[in-house]
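Researcher: Let's continue the batch. This sequence belongs to Glutamate decarboxylase, and it's 477 residues. Same format as the previous ones, please.
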Amino acid sequence: MPGAHSPSEDHGHERGVPVNPVFAAEPVDIPRFTIPDGGLDPEVAYQVVHDELMLDGNARLNLATFVTTWAEPQAERLMAESLDKNMIDKDEYPRTADLEQRCVRMLADLWNAPDPGRAIGCSTTGSSEACMLGGLALKRRWQHRRRAAGQPVQRPNIVMGINVQICWDKFADYFEVEPRLVPMSGDRLHLGVDEALALCDENTIGVVAVLGSTFDGSYEPVEALCAALDDLQERTGLDVPVHVDGASGAMVAPFCDPDLVWDFRLARVASINTSGHKYGLVHPGVGWAVWRDTAALPEDLVFRVNYLGGDMPTFALNFSRPGGQVIAQYYQFLRLGRDGYTRVQSTCRAIATGLAHRIEATGAFRLLTDGSQLPVFAFTVAEGEPFSVFDVSAALRESGWLVPAYTFPADRQDLAALRIVVRNGFSHDLAGLLLDDLRRVLERLRRQAAPVRGAESAGFAHGTRSAPAAERCRSQP
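Model: Same format as before. Here are the structure tokens for Glutamate decarboxylase:
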């Protein structure tokens, strides 16, 4: 059945969209699902599209998304000035290509690569593509080692927590790698070290550690994981590398938690990805993948073409894409510097932790996390309250706030939560306004006899799995 996110019905407008005469010299009718025979005045076309988009939610009030929704006008101007630049055409746009490589080196330095000048990496359309590249490099390195030893390469697997973003399920499916997922257990809502080790064998291409879970904002124990894998190698000879999915945390931890060891300071970390369009503070879409050195990225995965002029290496899954986001990333690195990023991310964390504890103080909720790692926190309804998290989410939407309600995956499908993502541009003032609206909502919801909405009413499913998928993802030794 089509839903709100699958607009396949015409809702009675079989003949098209009648256009108000105020937009045009005379009324016209525009088809919804076919290309019109004739064109439109640009102002009419603009107004029709603009008016429909007014029905979207306000991006600044979207507390579900990790994606940047505010940037300085100078960054947006640079992006607008670069709309016509194709990022892949490095021979025609050498300055843009150079800015990309400068960003790679800056990130390699930020993440403590042994030799940032020799670290290799690239921009992508987002962290999902960067994860695919990181996983693909792990698989190819494993294949090379196995073939060199005369061993079969038919059954690769990858170990990760069931809380990983859905792109990792896609990677496993698309590239035919068995996903071995560590389920949640009790209060452990992400990957556990002992549980991950129990799933590793000679066919394991790597372990994925998430620095900032999308479910609750928590960091996974990368340093402890690497130490355990070091011990595993000493005991068994198994050499299992680690990829750090730092989609959000890799642009928070270096500034807010500089003493936290999770990056290339750990020799077992082969690659790291992040989203420039999340806490990198750039409008979508740009991501980054960086390998600790050239040995971590097999040369046979790099393609070279010359039909755009000059010899051009390429590794990213996408080919043509805009250069404006990469340019904006370089602008943000220059504009903010380490001190600026520290101020921005620390402020986000302060807002998140303050808001989390004020929500807890209402007595209606129990915190699962408090925003002290990622500036993200999750909370569930306290025992005895006559409403569900889905009731709260729907009620807040009436005031324009988009706060997702969702259930956790195996083996904590009994746990339903709300989650708030604090991003640059979500101020202390907005946090206070949200809290005011939440308190008003609670007055009404507490008059209910029982919860009205359940998981079936939730419109948010980012990173969650359907029941059949969850069953398929059960960990297997």
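Researcher: Any comment?
Model: Residues 324-361 form the longest helix (38 residues).
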